[in-house]
C-alpha cells in the first residue's frame, strides 16, 4: 500500500499565503442574513459547490464574497525566496504571463456581485467567459474579468457585471434549485440548464445583446407531465407564475435531488452522453432525458465534431440493417426510425468565433421528431439494495472522461471502448456513495406522434 506523505500542500497550509484564500477568518464580508429566530435564511440542502477554476485560476466562495487567485502565484508565494526567484526567472525565459512581479501584499482579489443571499454554487462556462452564481433559489450569470487583472497594480475589489437568469422562474416563492449545469454542447458556451426540486427542467440560451434571453427559457419541461405522457403533441411545459398547480403523487415521487450531463462534450467522448441529462430523485429513482439540445449547438473540439456525429450515425445504420420483424421489436423499430429522422435533420452553418476569429460549425437542433425527448426511467440501480436515506447527488463517469485536458491524446483505445458503458454514482444524505455500472446506456428516444397518425389514418371500420 502506498504511504500518504501529506494531505495538504505546504503552500495551502495554515500560515501560508494560499491558506488566506480559503480562510473564513480573513473575510470582511457580512454573514448571510438571519431570521428573527436566528436561523440562516434559505439553507440549501445537499452539496455545495463553492470552488471553481479557469485554467490555473481559482474562484472560491467565502461568506458572501468570491475570491479570485492564481494557483501558480500562490504556490510561488509559499516557496522560499531563492526558489521563488528561480521560478520567476525560468518562466520569464519561456515568456510566461506569471513572470510579472506580484505585490507582496496581494494574495487574491475580491469579486463583488449584486447577488443577495448565501451563494451555494459557482461554475465556469465551457468557453471560460461566464460564471454561474447560484443561491438556494436564484441564478445570476456574471461576466468574468480578464486574467490580466490578477497582475494589475490595483488590487481592490472588482465589481462583476451580472444578469439575473429567470427573474420569474428562479425566485424565492418558486421551487428551490437542485442543479444548474452548463450544457456541454452550448453554442459559444452560452447555454445553461437549470433543474428545480419540483422536477422542472429549463434550458437557457442567453446573449448579452438580448436581455429577453435571460428572462425566457428556450425550453421548459415539466418532468411530472412528461413521465405520464403518451403523445409528443401534449403540453409538457413547466408551470409559470400564476398557473394553478395541485398536489399529485408525482410531487413526492419526483422530488429532484440533483442532475448531471452524461459527458462533458470534450474529445475522446462518443455516443449520446453530451446530450443526455441524468436526473436523480430523492427517493432513489433515476431518470434520463436524451437528447436534450439547445436550439443552436456546437461540439467543443471542432475537428472532432465529424467523428462524434459518425459515432452516432453508424450504430443507427447497423441496427436498422439487422433488425427483424418480430412484434417485440416494434418499439426498437420505432426508436430507430425516430433516430434516423432526427439525424437526417441535423444541419449546420458557419459562424465566426467571437474570441478567436476562427470559423465554427454551429448545428441546428432537428425539428423532428421534436425538441422534447421521452423521459426514460425510472432506472432502479439495484432492487435488492436498500437505500434508506434520500439521495443528494449524482455523478456519471464514462470512458474517455479522463482525457478532457490531454491535448495530445489520440483516440485509439476509444475504438475498443463501448461509449454506452457508464459508472453511475449516487450519494445519500448520510454521506454514503453507491456505484453502479450501466452496460446498456441511454440513447435518443421520443414519444410517438399519436395524434398525427390518428388524424391522417384511414377508417378502422
UniProtKB/TrEMBL annotation:
Q: Where in the cell is it found?
A: Nucleus, Nuclear pore complex
Gene Ontology MF term list: structural constituent of nuclear pore
Where it mainly occurs, coarsely classed, is nucleus
Query: Which region ranges are annotated with the description Disordered?
Result: 30-49
Keyword Nucleotidyltransferase listed? The answer is no
- Which InterPro entries does the UniProt entry name for this protein? NUP88/NUP82, WD40/YVTN_repeat-like_dom_sf
GO biological processes:
mRNA export from nucleus; protein import into nucleus; ribosomal large subunit export from nucleus; ribosomal small subunit export from nucleus
Lineage, top-rank taxon, reads Eukaryota
Q: Which UniProt keywords apply?
A: mRNA transport, Nuclear pore complex, Nucleus, Protein transport, Translocation, Transport
GO annotations of cellular component type: nuclear pore
PANTHER family attached here? NUCLEAR PORE COMPLEX PROTEIN NUP88 (PTHR13257:SF0), NUCLEOPORIN NUP84-RELATED (PTHR13257)
State what protein this is by name.
Answer: Putative nuclear pore complex protein an-nup82 protein
Species of origin? Botryosphaeria parva (strain UCR-NP2)
Amino acid at each position: 500500500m502506498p504511504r500518504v506523505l501529506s494531505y495538504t500542500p505546504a503552500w495551502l497550509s495554515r500560515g501560508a499565503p494560499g491558506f488566506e484564500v480559503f480562510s473564513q477568518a480573513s473575510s470582511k464580508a457580512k454573514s448571510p442574513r438571519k431570521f428573527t429566530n436566528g436561523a440562516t435564511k434559505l439553507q440549501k440542502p445537499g452539496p455545495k459547490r463553492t470552488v471553481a477554476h479557469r485554467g490555473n485560476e481559482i474562484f472560491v466562495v467565502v461568506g458572501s464574497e468570491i475570491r479570485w487567485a492564481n494557483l501558480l502565484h500562490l504556490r510561488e508565494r509559499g516557496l522560499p525566496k531563492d526558489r521563488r526567484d528561480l521560478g520567476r526567472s525560468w518562466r520569464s525565459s519561456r515568456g510566461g504571463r506569471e513572470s510579472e512581479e506580484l505585490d507582496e501584499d496581494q494574495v487574491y482579489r475580491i469579486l463583488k456581485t449584486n447577488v443577495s443571499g448565501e451563494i451555494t454554487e459557482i461554475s465556469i462556462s465551457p468557453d471560460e467567459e461566464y460564471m454561474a452564481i447560484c443561491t438556494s433559489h436564484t441564478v445570476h450569470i456574471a461576466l468574468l474579468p480578464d486574467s490580466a487583472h490578477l497582475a494589475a497594480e490595483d488590487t481592490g475589489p472588482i465589481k462583476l457585471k451580472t444578469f439575473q437568469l429567470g427573474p420569474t422562474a428562479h425566485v424565492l416563492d418558486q421551487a428551490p434549485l437542485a442543479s444548474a449545469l452548463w450544457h456541454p454542447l452550448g453554442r459559444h458556451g452560452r447555454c445553461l440548464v437549470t433543474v428545480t426540486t419540483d422536477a422542472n427542467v429549463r434550458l437557457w440560451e442567453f446573449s448579452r445583446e438580448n436581455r429577453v434571453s435571460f428572462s425566457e427559457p428556450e425550453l421548459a419541461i415539466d418532468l411530472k407531465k412528461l413521465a405520464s405522457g403518451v403523445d409528443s403533441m401534449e403540453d409538457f411545459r413547466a408551470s409559470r407564475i400564476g398557473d394553478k398547480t395541485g398536489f399529485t403523487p408525482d410531487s413526492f415521487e419526483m422530488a429532484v435531488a440533483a442532475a448531471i450531463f452524461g459527458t462533458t462534450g470534450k474529445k475522446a467522448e462518443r455516443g449520446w452522453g453530451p446530450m443526455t441529462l441524468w436526473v436523480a430523485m430523492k427517493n432513489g429513482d433515476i431518470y434520463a432525458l436524451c437528447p436534450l439540445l439547445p436550439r443552436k449547438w456546437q461540439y467543443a473540439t471542432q475537428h472532432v465534431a465529424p467523428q462524434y456525429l459518425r459515432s452516432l450515425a453508424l450504430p443507427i445504420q447497423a441496427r436498422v440493417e439487422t433488425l427483424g420483424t418480430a412484434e417485440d421489436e416494434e418499439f426498437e423499430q420505432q426508436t430507430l426510425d425516430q433516430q434516423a429522422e432526427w439525424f437526417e435533420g441535423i444541419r449546420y452553418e458557419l459562424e465566426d468565433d467571437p474570441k478567436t476569429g476562427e470559423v465554427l460549425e454551429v448545428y441546428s437542433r432537428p425539428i423532428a421528431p421534436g425538441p422534447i425527448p421521452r423521459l426514460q426511467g425510472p432506472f432502479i440501480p439495484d432492487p435488492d439494495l436498500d437505500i434508506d436515506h434520500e439521495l443528494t447527488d449524482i455523478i456519471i463517469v464514462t470512458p474517455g472522461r479522463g482525457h478532457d485536458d490531454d491535448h495530445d491524446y489520440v483516440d485509439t483505445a476509444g475504438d475498443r471502448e463501448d461509449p454506452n458503458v457508464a459508472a453511475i454514482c449516487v450519494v445519500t444524505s448520510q454521506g454514503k456513495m453507491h456505484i453502479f455500472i450501466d452496460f446498456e446506456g441511454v440513447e435518443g428516444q421520443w414519444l410517438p406522434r399519436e395524434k398525427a397518425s390518428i388524424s391522417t389514418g384511414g377508417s378502422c371500420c
